[in-house]
Design the sequence.
């Protein structure tokens, strides 16, 4: 019997430790100060991506007493295998850059099928979570910035003097062009290897709509602008009968998208589970929902 991907283990236990670290986040802006909630009991968290075994964010929030569900609004589809032209570009590259964990999963599977891994090519990841996927799934060490975004990658010392180099960016279909543009300005030849795409997954929409209509505090987790746009379209199909919920997002770029679509963002410092947890703990205070 197939497990329902929406439901996580709910509940928790008393005696939650306080969130640690000053680099937390808050309502509408990153926040490193202020009261921190130890228990998230009473809060429903709706993660807008597929349930993953051992998801650290879901586990952390559940341990604090939150009721956590997964409603994937987008499905990830792998694209066709590397053709001869792309294989040649990848094989002759001076560096590979992975901009998401999905890029790691689908890109390296295609590279392995083409006989292009293991490799001695320098490898870069957009952030710690993507670097962890490379290390844990493939045993590959990747250089990554502390600032998990395009701007952070462009600050890496190894990507400054790239005149005459060929670099390959592994990513999904679409997205920003800032990384390629920045590297090209430095004289690099840059190729995209778009190894997956996101497609609408509408079968969970009725259940998500019901969850949003239920009483009590609720927080949605949207890891990308694409997810926020899919959520906005869902609410528009509901003819405006549902209010726009508060959304936990990783970083200012996704927060800007949230604001543009009418959502109030709770901004985490990054997509790492610990940073997302800190943001929830700063936001979910008893005073906010006291009636």
Sequence:
């Amino acid at each position: 019997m197939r497990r329902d991907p929406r439901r996580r283990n709910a509940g928790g236990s008393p005696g939650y430790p306080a969130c640690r670290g000053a680099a937390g986040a808050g309502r509408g802006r990153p926040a490193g100060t202020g009261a921190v909630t130890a228990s998230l009991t009473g809060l429903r968290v709706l993660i807008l991506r597929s349930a993953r075994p051992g998801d650290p964010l879901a586990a952390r929030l559940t341990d604090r007493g939150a009721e956590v569900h997964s409603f994937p609004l987008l499905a990830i589809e792998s694209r066709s295998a590397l053709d001869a032209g792309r294989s040649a570009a990848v094989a002759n590259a001076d560096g590979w850059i992975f901009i998401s964990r999905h890029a790691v999963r689908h890109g390296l599977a295609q590279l392995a099928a083409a006989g292009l891994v293991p490799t001695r090519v320098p490898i870069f990841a957009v952030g710690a979570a993507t670097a962890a996927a490379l290390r844990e799934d493939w045993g590959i060490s990747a250089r990554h910035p502390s600032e998990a975004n395009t701007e952070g990658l462009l600050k890496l010392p190894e990507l400054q003097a790239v005149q005459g180099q060929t670099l390959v960016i592994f990513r999904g279909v679409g997205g920003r062009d800032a990384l390629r543009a920045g590297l090209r300005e430095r004289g690099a030849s840059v190729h995209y290897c778009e190894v997956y795409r996101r497609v609408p997954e509408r079968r969970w929409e009725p259940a998500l709509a019901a969850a949003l209509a239920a009483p009590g505090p609720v927080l949605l987790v949207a890891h990308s602008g694409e997810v926020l746009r899919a959520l906005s379209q869902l609410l528009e199909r509901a003819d405006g009968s549902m209010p726009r919920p508060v959304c936990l997002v990783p970083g200012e770029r996704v927060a800007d998208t949230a604001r543009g679509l009418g959502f109030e963002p709770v901004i985490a410092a990054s997509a790492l589970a610990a940073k997302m947890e800190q943001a929830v703990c700063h936001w979910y205070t008893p005073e906010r929902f006291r009636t």
